[in-house]
Backbone:
């Protein structure tokens, strides 16, 4: 692991990546690099992908739309965020985002405090090349990160925007 002083520059193509079935995670700045203050990941989002609605108990997220357009639902608010937009997803508030457009979208996400970025690595290990993950294992993983899913939103959003949930 590089020390904090060695991580002064992250090149555009730098960072390890994992795939979560429709959304990618590229690790740009890890919590270890910031003393646990925050982490930064990049999310490439395939067209037609819905991130399962969820609520964080421990961390806030701030997303910046780098390219494309994403739909967002935070609590009862639904809106569209285009390139250049910032989206604040506070802890304790259910939220989701999706790409209903025909092109890929890309988000830069700051997670604070750091730590949740490790969830993505662990979740990627649970997604088989074919078929569905073991939902009991997913539930156990989510519980370790104080993450709850709000799956009641999925049918309406999937139908309205012609979306598929990650990994499905």
Residues:
């Amino acid at each position: 692991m590089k020390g904090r002083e060695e991580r002064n520059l992250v090149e555009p193509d730098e960072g390890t990546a994992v795939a979560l079935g429709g959304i990618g995670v590229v690790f740009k700045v890890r919590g270890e690099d910031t003393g646990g203050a925050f982490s930064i990941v990049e999310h490439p989002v395939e067209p037609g992908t819905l991130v399962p609605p969820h609520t964080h108990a421990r961390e806030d997220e701030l997303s910046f739309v780098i390219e494309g357009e994403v739909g967002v639902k935070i609590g009862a608010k639904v809106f569209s965020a285009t390139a250049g937009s910032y989206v604040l997803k506070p802890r304790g508030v259910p939220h989701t985002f999706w790409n209903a457009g025909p092109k890929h979208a890309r988000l830069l996400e700051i997670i604070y405090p750091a730590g949740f970025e490790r969830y993505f690595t662990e979740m990627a290990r649970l997604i088989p090349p074919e078929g569905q993950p073991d939902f009991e294992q997913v539930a156990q993983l989510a519980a370790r990160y104080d993450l709850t899913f709000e799956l009641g939103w999925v049918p309406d959003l999937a139908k309205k925007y012609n979306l598929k949930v990650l990994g499905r």
User: Anything to note?
Assistant: The mean pLDDT is 93.
